[in-house]
Amino acid sequence: MAYTENVFCIGLFILVLYVTGVLIVNSQRALITTMPDKLQALSGSCVQIPCAFEIPTIHSNDFNKSTNISGVWLKGATTFGTTPEIKIFNSSKTDSKFQGQIIGNLFQKNCTTVFYNVKNSYTDKYFFRIDANGPYRATDTYKQIEIFVQDVPPIPTMTDSVEVKEGTLVSLNCSAVAPCPEHPPNLTWTFPTKSTPEDHLQENPDQTKSVVSMVTFTSSYLHNEKNITCTAVYPVGTSYKTAEINRTLNVLFSPKDTSASISPSVPVSVGSCVNLTCSSTANPPVTNYTWFRISEGKPTQVSFRQNYTLNVIVEDGGLYYCEAVNDVGLGNSSEVLLAIKAQDKPVSPLVYGIVGGISVIMLIVILIAFFGWKRKSRFPDQHERTDNPLEQNPSVYNNQGMVKSKPEEQAEDQSEEIHYGEIIFSKQRPKETPAVAKDRDQVQESEYSEVKVTRR
Ligand SMILES: *[C@@H]1O[C@H](CO)[C@@H](O)[C@H](O)[C@H]1NC(C)=O
Ligand SMILES: *[C@@H]1O[C@H](CO)[C@@H](O)[C@H](O)[C@H]1NC(C)=O
Ligand SMILES: *[C@@H]1O[C@H](CO)[C@@H](O)[C@H](O)[C@H]1NC(C)=O
Ligand SMILES: *[C@@H]1O[C@H](CO)[C@@H](O)[C@H](O)[C@H]1NC(C)=O
Ligand SMILES: *[C@@H]1O[C@H](CO)[C@@H](O)[C@H](O)[C@H]1NC(C)=O
Ligand SMILES: *[C@@H]1O[C@H](CO)[C@@H](O)[C@H](O)[C@H]1NC(C)=O
Ligand SMILES: *[C@@H]1O[C@H](CO)[C@@H](O)[C@H](O)[C@H]1NC(C)=O
Hints:
CATH topology of the largest domain: Immunoglobulin-like
Shape: rod-shaped
Number of helices: 7
Distance between the termini: 133 Å
Domain Ig-like: 153-246, 255-339
Number of domains: 4
Transmembrane segments: 7-25, 350-373
CATH superfamily of the largest domain: Immunoglobulins
Bound molecules: 2-acetamido-2-deoxy-beta-D-glucopyranose
Organism: Umbra pygmaea
CATH class of the largest domain: Mainly Beta
Keywords: Membrane, Transmembrane, Transmembrane helix
Helix content: 25-40%
Pfam family, one: Ig_2
């Protein structure tokens, strides 16, 4: 208990000391300026120093009475009494060492100052002083601003592009300091080109200015590992100085361009070694490969390796494809054919069967055609007809009559048709003969009408 009380008392004591110290210091400070601790400037350009000041109440009357106020900048020290050369700017004088202007309204306690055409030698710390042409004159010796003048502009900053999944909207901000807001840098993006960046001058917490440009685009797997560059172009006098920043995009995407290859790609003979290789691009890399063989129209898993090596048997022939999987998704290849060279032993019985069957059929067809031709060539012979028995004559004469009344080409067809009818006639004859053999005239009649029907 005593310990905690002691700690509390000591803490309180320190706090009281601190507050007292601050009060003493501030009461000693006849001028309290507010400005950034540090500022970067580009040689040849201008630099704007955001500045505001406060005057303790005991001095306010004096300040308020004044009608003419000078703002003075001291370089490197405050002892201008002994070293007057440190007094590099007096707003009431036109022949100051530094070209500049207090653009803030001093009566409104705004000491914002612009120095033009800054040089590398301007790199130093600076103090501000108010000279109110009367009883009130004060330098804030407690507050200084450090100005760094450089020949090259500072590198812009870009928001860290975290890993993005393909298809998501990505926004990137590029920010470049504008030490000279009168001539702010122009920001350009090398990628993506389709965006419509809108630059705007924005005020930072310390009152300095920056130009911010934002691009938005839908990420694609094609953007992965692409550099996105933001370039800040600073106008300096009549020329330009540039600074740029690069970011490499990391787009996570499912396997793309998945392809299956087969080696060797020519038909292989049974027993030989065949390699099936699956390739794909993916981010993160592919974790699982699966090989499928299409059998009976359905894919069947046959391997879980990127390279599938097999000693070919007859059943291995067919279409294959592979599938690549990563954390984001999967991608399938198109199909490749594992072709197997035709072999004599296993294939010959079937081939022989087919060839033999075709041969037999052809032989039969040829025989039929041959006999058909023989008959055909026998009947058109006039002598045979005239020699034929009377019973066949009626039909033959009738045919001749029909043939003569038609063109020759058709006559040939007719004779063929008629010939077909003759074959049927001859076939039917044995059946009819026993039934109708008694009366020959009747038989002739029926035969005649039958031939007529066949001709149509
Ligand atoms: C001085 O003038 C400011 C406004 O210009 C006012 O706020 C302030 O109170 C004045 N101080 C005194 C001591 O009159
Ligand atoms: C600034 O210039 C004014 C006008 O010449 C002068 O009255 C004042 O004393 C100068 N201030 C300093 C600190 O030299
Ligand atoms: C001081 O003056 C500058 C220039 O006119 C202005 O941009 C800035 O906003 C002013 N600061 C304050 C605190 O009013
Ligand atoms: C980019 O800038 C815009 C406007 O300045 C802001 O609204 C947005 O939050 C910023 N985005 C990132 C990622 O910083
Ligand atoms: C992308 O930027 C890196 C450095 O940021 C660089 O090493 C690489 O060469 C750049 N790549 C391309 C394609 O510009
Ligand atoms: C198949 O791959 C193995 C090793 O993976 C190799 O030794 C063999 O030569 C390859 N065969 C062919 C036909 O590419
Ligand atoms: C990938 O393979 C691993 C083992 O090798 C297994 O645990 C995992 O389930 C597989 N993932 C997919 C998506 O098949």
